[in-house]
Amino acid sequence: MRRQLAARLAQSLIVVIIVTTISFFVIRSAPGDPFSYESTTITPAIRDHWREQFGYNRPLPVQFIRYVTSVAHGELGYSFQMHEPVAVALAAAVPRTLLLTGLALGLSFLFGIIIGVLQATHRDGWFDRVTSAVLLFFYSLPDFWAALMILLLFAYWWPVLPAGNIVDPVMHDYMGGWEALVDRLRHLALPVLSFTLLTMAGITRYQRAAMIETLPMDFIRTARAKGLSERRIVWRHALRTALTPMVALLGLMLPALLGGALFIEKVFAWPGMGLLAAGAVAARDYDLVTATVIAGSVMVVIGSFFADLLHMAIDPRVRE
Amino acid sequence: MMLGPGVDDSFGRQLDVPLPPMPSEMRSTLLLIASAAVLVGCGSKEGSSSSGTAGGTVIIDTPGNAVAIFPPYVDDQIGRWVQDLVFDRLADLKAGGTTIGDRGFTARLAQKWTWAPDSMSIAFSLDPRARFHDGTPVTASDVRYSFNVFTDPKVGSPTAPTLTNIDSISVRDSLTPVAWFKRRTPEQFYDLAYQLVVLPQHVYAGIPADQLRTSAATRSLVGSGPFRLVKWEAGARLELIADTSNYRGRPKLDRLIMTAVETPTAATQVLAGQADFVEAFPVDQVPKLDSSAVARSNIEPQLGYTFMGMNQHVAKSKTAPNPIFSDIRVRRALSMAVDRVGMLHNVFGNTGLLAHGPFPMTASYADSTLKLPAFDTTAARAMLDSSGWRVGADGMRSKNGVPLRFSLMSPTTSLFRRRYAVLLQEQFRRLGVQVDLDFVDGPTAVLRSQAGDFQAILHTPGTDPSITGAKQFWGTGGIGPAGHNILPYSNPKVDALLDSAAAAFDPDKAKAAASRAFQTIIDDVPAIWLYDVTYYNGINRRITIPQPTLAGWWMNVEHWSIPADKRIPRDRIGLTAAKP
Amino acid sequence: MSSIGPSSRSIVGRLLAHRSARWALAVIALLVVAAIAGPWFTAHAGHEQLDIVKLKNTPPSWRYPFGTDQYSRDLLTRVLLGARISLAVATLAVLLSTTLGTAYGLISGYAGGAVDAAMMRVLDGFLSIPRVLLLIAILTLWNPVPLSGLILLLGATGWFGVSRIVRAQTLATRHLEYVESARALGAGTGRILLRHVLPNIVTPVIVTATLAVGNVIALEAGLSYLGVGAREPTPSWGSIFFDGVEFFAGNWWVVFFPGVAIVATVLAFNVLGDALRDVLDPRQLHRSAPVTPGTQPRENG
Q: Does position A317 have pLDDT exceeding 80, yes or no?
């Protein structure tokens, strides 16, 4: 098992390196550079001076070697757009995205599992039909459309919750602990709601299928024969087995989640990874683009790595 | 000699009202004592000013992140806001002010100035009360240091080209910097007093010039302006508080917060009262603002004008004449075929400003009496027919088998230009001309316009209020990498007229010569003059804004106030620092 | 499992007997008819600006059932035209991605061993790239991308999931008795793949493709919403949306109607995909391996 993990890690590392290399050359082969932003004051001569100063006029392979060397020394470069080291910009954005996606993912799994189990145990009943239909509807909504509609609904037509920002940009710093927590939750509410509605459907359907497969199994029959209560059978024995494939799903979902986060972040002015990456691409902020790609793939790799670990812990068959 | 940033349609500007009198010594002293009380901890949590005339927190939604806030590097709209709130210039441009001589200017850091008899130098008398935010007095050597930083090639400031006529700055005594010029020019005062922002030498002098851009020290600003920078969380939030001991009196507001929120969401926030101010509210929705109980609109014409330029050459070529646009009859016909007034109403509602030629109406030399090609589609059709571009079976025009078809480049970042592009495309189609829209993102648009890699372009030059600025865009000297004449347009008659306008020391003579130059340009039809950029800012109704006194809303923020009876909780937090 | 896929006749029959499938098919049929014929019957052309001053942003009325947009163009016409673009882009992109994915999965699964392992590791790499971010980056950097380029990009980045499913099915099929015996009888690899393996993987491939059409429609809309999708004056549902989004609360119809069109279409394809799975292979319902179609993570925008 240890060897398997090591191989998995090595493979992940290779993926990260390849992705980094590709993004390095892709962003640099596009028209423009960090100093080609629209300006009527900057003359081409000044732009050339800056390119010279930061080495962007050198041949690409030379730039690449320079970049790789500095990354190997733990130096991720400088963001001209954020006017700070790339590491600082990432350190601010990553936790914001993790908070948003983490919370939404947690809620999606919680509700998804509960509803999925109930659907399976009441298969083809009214609850199964209604929730399946409603969830399929949410599953079919484009992310940005759903987010905008939710914003419109709860922040404009019926303005009960704030439209955007992570916390109140002024008062949060002056609030007591409890008040500050409520403020944070209020600002989290709409983006998390949008995100959860969108991701919950897939999880629910998955859980339903896994549960339907598990319920007729021998050990469940044995448990019934022992006279255990139905509730205990479903929520303890069957669910434990049916959860195993859910973990694999978690690993698979991560890349898609990062993409989906961009739309939610854009609508709710949530300055996380998605917005940072999109802004960096638009500004040709070379180092920041490459660094967000690295951070994104590392997050995905770590995520699926832990999903694998969890999978092994739950399901002894995988360990063989 | 350019002024004006511009990721988008936003530029420096000037308006026609004199500066209000400074607050009395008495009041600023009282305020000083009050704020000192807070600093030593005697103040309540409410702060010093929540009950007085001063107080209030204003949240400004910004469309993105400030790219640079350290003055030598400032080149974007948001960066300029921050710079002008935190730092001072020697003098401010006032009252639709002419940039010729010094009559258009009002005192700022310099209380007064004295010209040498030969006009080759100007001695400025700094306000002895002026202090940087760390309490250090502003001195003549700070001015000299600032000039050296802005012009140091190792720094590479975008402002440097505007300072080339200044030879050096010397220090006569601690309060008297003297600027030495290379040539006597009508706009030499403007070049220095308006373009140079004064930085504290003792704060930044220790940083090597080529490291200023990336130095952490240049993220925390120390200036002498009305507001202090407290915190900059790039991409998210920027906080400024009132400089209560400012030599020009403290601002009436306590605090400004800028948060990065994109337009649709920002509009919702302003209408809900969650944010207080947004520049350029979605223009279609301004009636929503006017009927809102929470916010209202505030019109602000900008110093930019937009035109559809027609490349004189084949795209990317510096010499080969453009097969379509080299014929003036075609250019004129295209110009006459578009409903400029209708498009203006479509995009800006009933309050837009039509362009009158190659200048914004906010410029001191603007002339609304120039004669533009009339809107006459019949004449336009006839003109195209006579120039050989005839309508074919498919309704589109062609000549010798070549279709009358061109691409129109526009940056996606500009909403106004994007909308005009779609409107123009359809109007040209009705004429039998096929236009392909070429929407490109910002950096690509910049590179391609400089390389002449376009056929037609929607362009918004960020003109500076000076006539020499216009030369950069329309003079032969502006062609090439040092200038901004991208079409390129060249007419010796225009060059001569613009030269004599720029050399005139009498504003009226300058304006007359400029008008003749502009009429000549208009008659050559290198472009279709579309609109002056106008913003409808959304602003919360509890904020009182006096008549604008200086160019741009942010230059006047120090005079914004919130009456005590209209204050909401965030206005009452005062100047106390937040918990760590 | 038989060596021949389910007969097409029985599929149609069973689909028509399936209640939700009937609905989904009806919606899709309506969309296709509207997309093909609709613009011929509307009074205006999609690019026609009726009166840029008096008729901009008019709310829905008898005359303009979906209202007009900010350029005074008839929104009903544009939504119908948008159906053409959106459906065509999605269908072609999915055709491409399904072909790519099936080929990759077949080769990997049938070759087995080291080739399979290597190909799967490469696939893992691809799967760890956030598709939406990749597309946004490419489309931003090389804007404007023509429609054909958009289709290619959507197709080239959408095949990873399919190939996993195909590979799993191929692995399972490869060792079935009749395949082994066909091989023993000297059938070539190509023949075995085409005649014996492919028919067995048709079911999940069709189901996945159906679901993917819905996904790609939503994805294209998302990209257009960010301003990097279809170009003016060509309307896709997403680009109509992009036109209206500047401040959507005021002219809700510009945002609402294309949105409803997107949701209805995606929903129809999702329902149809589910129904197809029920009809084609009821046992699939009980499978819960990560390859189960329809339970893949959403990737739409």
A: no
**Is C292 within a domain?**
no
The pLDDT score that the predictor gives to residue A315 is 64
State yes or no: pLDDT of B4 exceeds 50.
Answer: no
Chain B contact for C247, CB < 8 A? yes
Between chain A and chain C, the number of residue pairs with CB atoms below 8 A apart is 161
The partner residue sitting opposite B443, judged by closest CB among A162, A267, A284, is A284
Q: Would you say how long chain C is, in residues? A: 301
Beta-carbon separation of A209 and C288 below 8 A: yes
Name the pairing type of β-strands B176-181 and B227-233: unpaired
The angle subtended at Cα A15 by Cα A9 and Cα A18, nearest 5°, is 140
Residues 6+ positions from B530 with CB-CB distance below 8 Å: B305, B306, B307, B308, B340, B343, B344, B355, B420, B458
Touching subunits for chain C (3+ Cβ pairs under 8 A) = A, B
pLDDT digits 0-9 by tens, B362-389: 887 889 899 999 999 999 999 999 999 9
Q: How many domains does chain C have?
A: 1
CATH number at residue C278: 1.10.3720.10
C164, closest residue in chain A (CA to CA): A252
* Confidence at A162, pLDDT banded by 50, 70, 90: confident
What range does the domain containing C14 cover? 7-287
Shortest Cα distance from B278 to chain C (angstroms)? 13
Q: Which of C250, C129, B252, B142 is nearest to A296 (CA)?
A: C129
Does domain A89-319 bear CATH number 3.40.50.80?
no
Q: Which one of C47, C70, C233 has the shortest CB-CB distance to B419?
A: C70
CB contact under 8 A, C249 and B412: no
Per CB-CB distance under 8 Å, the chain B contacts of A279 are: 64-65, 235
Contact B429 C249 (CB under 8 A): no
pLDDT tens, position by position, A102-127:
899 899 999 998 998 899 888 888 99
Residue B164 near residue B216 (C-beta atoms within 8 A): no
SS3 of residue A250 by DSSP: helix
Q: For the residues B106-126, what does the mean pLDDT come to? A: 92
Chain A window 198-257: which residues touch B at a Cβ cutoff of 8 Å? none
Chains that contact B by 3+ CB pairs under 8 Å? A, C
The pLDDT of residue B154: 82
Give C19: exposed, middle or buried? Use CB within 10 Å, 0-12, 13-18, 19+.
exposed
Contact B268 A89 (CB under 8 A): no
C136 within some domain: yes
Work out the angle between the directed axes of helices A126-139 and A177-214 (0-180°, nearest 10). 120
